[in-house]
Amino acid sequence: MEYSFSKSTSALSSSAVREILKLTQGNQVLSLAGGLPAEDSFPIEEMREAFNRALDHGAKSLQYGLTDGYIPLREWVSSRMKQKHMNVGVENMLITTGSQQAVDLLCRVYLDEGDVVLVENPTYLAAVQLFQFRGIRAIPVDGDAEGMDMEDLARKIAQYRPKMAYVIPTFANPTGKVWSLEKRLGLLKQCRENNILILEDDPYGEIQFDGEAPYRSIFSLDEHPDGSAVVYTSTFSKIVAPGLRTGWAIGDSQVIQMMVKAKQAIDLQSSTIDQFALYELLSRFDLESHIQKIRDSYKERMEWMHELLCRQTSGMKWNKPRGGMFLWVELPEHVHSEKLLAQAVKEGVAFVPGIPFYADQPQTNTMRLNYTLLDREHTELAINRLGKAFAEYSQLVAH
Amino acid sequence: MEYSFSKSTSALSSSAVREILKLTQGNQVLSLAGGLPAEDSFPIEEMREAFNRALDHGAKSLQYGLTDGYIPLREWVSSRMKQKHMNVGVENMLITTGSQQAVDLLCRVYLDEGDVVLVENPTYLAAVQLFQFRGIRAIPVDGDAEGMDMEDLARKIAQYRPKMAYVIPTFANPTGKVWSLEKRLGLLKQCRENNILILEDDPYGEIQFDGEAPYRSIFSLDEHPDGSAVVYTSTFSKIVAPGLRTGWAIGDSQVIQMMVKAKQAIDLQSSTIDQFALYELLSRFDLESHIQKIRDSYKERMEWMHELLCRQTSGMKWNKPRGGMFLWVELPEHVHSEKLLAQAVKEGVAFVPGIPFYADQPQTNTMRLNYTLLDREHTELAINRLGKAFAEYSQLVAH
Fold first, then answer.
1. Which of the residues B3, B256, B276 would you substitute to probe the A interface, choosing the one with the greatest number of A C-beta atoms within 10 Å?
2. Model ipTM?
3. Pick from A81, A85, A83, A84: which is nearest to A94 by CA?
4. Which of A282, A316, A334 is the last residue of a domain?
5. Is residue A2 assigned to a domain?
6. Residues of A in contact with B101 (CB under 8 A)
7. What angle separates helix A376-398 from helix A287-311, to the nearest 10 degrees?
8. A44:B62 CB<8 A
9. Residue of B48, B64, B264 lying closest to A242 (CB–CB)
10. Confidence of residue B315 (pLDDT cuts 50, 70, 90)
11. B7 touches A at CB < 8 Å
12. Strand pairing category for A30-31 and A349-350
C-alpha cells in the first residue's frame, strides 16, 4: 500500500524542535519547555470527591450528552463570565476539549483555505500550526510591549483583507505580554470597521500577579453577546487541571451554534463524566482561594527564575511577566536557539526555541521558558544547566 | 458585525430531522431515534472505584499526557486486538475522543477537498456529514444483505478513482448488516489493487447475538500492521459507556503517527483522567461477562421489538439483525418517513428517517429504530404509538 497524505499534512511535518524534545521524555532532562501547570496545584482529593458525586447522578453521568455541553456547567461558566463583564447565557457558549479545540472549530466554520488571519508576532505555536494545517495564511502584525502596532495593523488589514485576527491579549503565550486598554480598543475598532472577527484566546487571564483589577477582555469591551465582533475562549486547564481537557468558547449565538454543529460532526461531544465532575467540584469549591494560591505560587516561581537568570552572565534579556506561565528571553544576536537547545539537552535541560512561534520571519535568538512546572530546587538546577550549555555553545561558536 | 461562514458549513445546515428531534427533548416523547446504549448496562460502581484508583496515581492523572494516549490503556487495547487476530503494538494505535474523531482525523490527514470516498448505501449519517463538511465526495456503492456489490464497486472505482472506502462491515449502522467473508476479502482485494485506503468502522462488533465465533475484521484479513490497506477504529462507548468518549484507531504506524500530529494541533489529547480510569476499570473488570450481559440484554430487546413490529399490520419489512443496536425498516412505498416522523412525534414517539443515511439518492420510505435504550414496557408503548402514527399518516395520505 502506498499512502498518499492530504496536502494539508505538509504543515504537520516533523519539526527539529519536536524531535529534540522527544529525547527529553522519560530521562533526566529538566523541562522548561512545556506549558504544564504545577502539579502540586491540582485539587486531587476534591476531584476524587467530585467524581464520586458525579457518579451519584447515575447512568446520565456516563451516557451521551449534549454537544454544546452539560447545562449546569455552562450555567456556572456563564455566571463567572458575568462577573468579568461578559454577559452571556448558555446559548452563547460551547464546552470544548480544551480551548485548543475552540480555535480549530472556529477556523473550520469561519475560514476557507487561503483566508488570512492576523496574529501577534510571535504568537502561540499550536495556533500557527493549526492555521497552516487548515491552509489558512497567518500574517504577523508588529507589536510592542503594549500590544499590536495600530499602524501596522491598519497596513496589514489594507494589504491582506483578513477575515480574522487571533490574539492572546492577557499574559500572552509566548511573550507574557499584556495589552493596554488602548490597544484592545484599537484592535476592536479596526476589526469592527473592517468586519474582521477577533478570536480572543484567554487561557492565562486568571493567573495575574499584581493584585490589581483583572484586565478587561476584548469581548467585554465590545457589544455582546449577539453581534459581537469577538469570540472568546478560555479553559479550566490552568485553574483546575489540564487532564480534564475542558474549555469553553463564548460569542454570538449564531457563531456558537455553527461551532456546535461542527463539533457534532467531529467528535459528538467532550467527556460527559468530566463535565459532571467539574461542575460538582466548582459548585462546592473555593475557586477564588485556589486561584489565589496558584497566583502566589507562580509569582514566586517566576521571581525565582528571574533571580536565577540575573545571576547568569549570558547577555539574555527579558521582561518580567505580570502573569501567566512563561518568560520570553532574547539571547545575544549570534545565538541560534535551536542549536542552543541541542547543547542544552546534552546538559540535561530543555526549553522551546522561539522560532516556531513566528508565523513568518522568525527571530532566531529567542526562547520560551516555563516557570510553573519545576519546584525551586529543580528550577535552580535547570537554569544552571542552561547557563552551562550557553557557555559551551558560545565557545563552540567562537571556534 | 456581519458574519460570513466558511463554505464547508453549507454541509452543516440544519436538517428537518434535527429540528423535529429537538422537539422530543425533555418531554414525554419516547425515543427510538438515538444510538444510545441501555443505561442499566453502565458499570457505575466499578467506574466509581476506577476513578478512585485513577486519582491514586496523583497529579499525573490530571496533568497533560501523550497525544496518542495513555500507554497502559493502549497496551490493554493492543492485547485485546491481538485476541481478534489484529497484531498491533502501541505505536500502531491512537486514543481518540470516540471513534467519530478517528474518522475526522483520518479524513484530515488523508483526503483533500474534492477527493472521493466510497460508502455503503445507506451508511452512517454522521460520517456522510463529516465527509461533506470536509468537501469530500461520498459515493454510494450498491449492496445486498452480504455487503457491497463487487461489480458496482469495480465500476465506481473505475469511474470515480476514490482514495478511500468507508465501511461498517459488522452490524452496520443503520442497516444492522454483516458482511460475508467473501465480500470482506473482495473489498480488500479491489482496494489493494487500486491503492484505496479502507476505513473500517467497528463500534458494534462486540455486540453479537448468535454465539458464533466473532466475524473477522477486514484489518485482520490484510497484511498488518505496517503496510495495511486498512485503518480500523472502535470504541468503548458500546461496551463500557459512551460518556467517557474514548475510542481508538489502529493501522500502519506512519498513518497513525500522522493522525497523532493532526490531533496534537486539533485538541492536544483526549481526557487524561478518563483514560486512566478506563484502564483501571479494565485491568480488574470481567469485561467478557459484562459484554455477554449486554449481548443477552440487547438480543432480548431486539427480539421484543421484532415481535411488537410483527403485530403491526403496517406493511413494514425488516431483517432481524444478528447484532448491533438498530433495526432498519422499509415502509410501504407511499410512505415518506420524514412526514411519518412528524406524525409520530405528535403521538409521542421518535425515530430517525432513513434519508440522511444516504450519501446520494435516498430511499424515502425507510427508517432506523434503536432497540437498546428503552426497556420492555416503554418499547411496547413506543411501537404502539408508532403503529398509531402510521395508521393516521396512511389515512391522511389517502385523503
1. B3
2. 0.96
3. A81
4. A282
5. no
6. 266-267
7. 40
8. yes
9. B64
10. confident
11. yes
12. parallel
- Mutation for testing the B interface, residue in A7, A8, A24, A62 having most B CBs under 10 Å: A62
pLDDT in tens, A175-204: 999 999 999 999 999 999 999 999 999 999
Which of A231, A250, A282 delimits the end of a domain? A282
Report how far residue B34's alpha carbon sits from residue B48's, in angstroms, rounded to the nearest whole number.
26
Interchain CB contact of A97 with B (< 8 Å)? yes
Taking 80 as the threshold, does the pLDDT of residue A67 lie above it? yes
Q: What is the pLDDT of residue A300?
A: 98
Q: How far is A246 from chain B (nearest CA, A)?
A: 8
Q: State residue A195's pLDDT score.
A: 97
Whether residues A327 and A211 fall in one domain: no
Whether the predicted pLDDT of A25 surpasses 90: no
Residue reference for cell 465465533: B213
Do B58 and A36 count as a contact with CB atoms less than 8 A apart? no
CATH number at residue A352: 3.90.1150.10
How many angstroms separate the CA atoms of A18 and A31, rounded? 13
Mean pLDDT of B108-114: 96
Residue A23 scores a pLDDT above 80: no
Distance, in Å, from the CA atom of A30 to the CA atom of A383, rounded to the nearest integer, reads 10
Name the average pLDDT for chain B. Answer: 95
Same domain, A95 and A222: yes
Instruction: Please say whether the dihedral angle defined by the alpha carbons of residues B64, B69, B72 and B76, taken in this order, is positive or negative.
Output: positive
What is the pLDDT at residue A159?
A: 98
CB contact under 8 A, A265 and B6: no
Task: Give yes or no: residues B229 and B292 share one domain.
Answer: no
Nearest Cα of chain A lies from the Cα of B398 at a distance, in angstroms, of 37
| B347-361 per-position pLDDT tens digit | 999 999 999 999 999
Q: In this structure, are A183 and A36 located in the same domain?
A: no
User: How distant, in Å, are the alpha carbons of A4, A166, A210, A276, B205 from that of B164?
Assistant: 11, 34, 55, 38, 21
- Which B residues in the span 225-284 are in contact with A, Cβ-Cβ below 8 Å? 227-229, 241-245, 252, 254-255, 258, 261-262, 264-274
Yes or no: say if B355 and B18 are a contact pair by the CB < 8 Å rule. Answer: no
Does pLDDT of B184 surpass 90?
A: yes
Is the distance from CB of B36 to CB of A63 less than 8 angstroms? yes
Please report the DSSP string for A163-178 in residue order. SEEEE--BS-TTT--B
A187 lies in the same domain as A249: yes
> Among residues 321-360 of chain B, which lie with CB inside 8 Å of chain A?
none
CATH of the domain at A73: 3.40.640.10
Whether A77 maps to a domain, the answer reads: yes
Report the pLDDT averaged over residues A169-177. 97
Cβ burial, residue B133 (10 Å; 0-12/13-18/19+): buried
A165 & A57 share domain = yes
Domains of chain B: total: 2
Q: If you average pLDDT over residues B279-306, what whole number do you get?
A: 97
- Say yes or no: B249 and B141 in one domain: yes
CA distance to partner chain A, nearest, from residue B161 (Å): 14
Residue A5 lies in a domain: no
Confidence of residue B111 (pLDDT cuts 50, 70, 90): very high
Nearest to B62 among A47, A229, A258 (CB): A47
B114 and B66 in one domain? yes
Q: What are phi and psi of B335, to 5 degrees?
A: -90, 125
Q: Tell me what the mean pLDDT of segment A367-391 comes to.
A: 96
Average pLDDT, chain A: 95
Name the nearest CA neighbour of B322 among B306, B333, B310, B308.
B306
- Separation between Cα atoms, residue B92 and residue A142, nearest integer Å: 43
- Interval A389-398: pLDDT, tens: 999 998 888 7
Tell me the one-letter amino acid at A80.
R
Structural domain harbouring A159:
44-282
Indicate whether A338 belongs to any domain.
yes
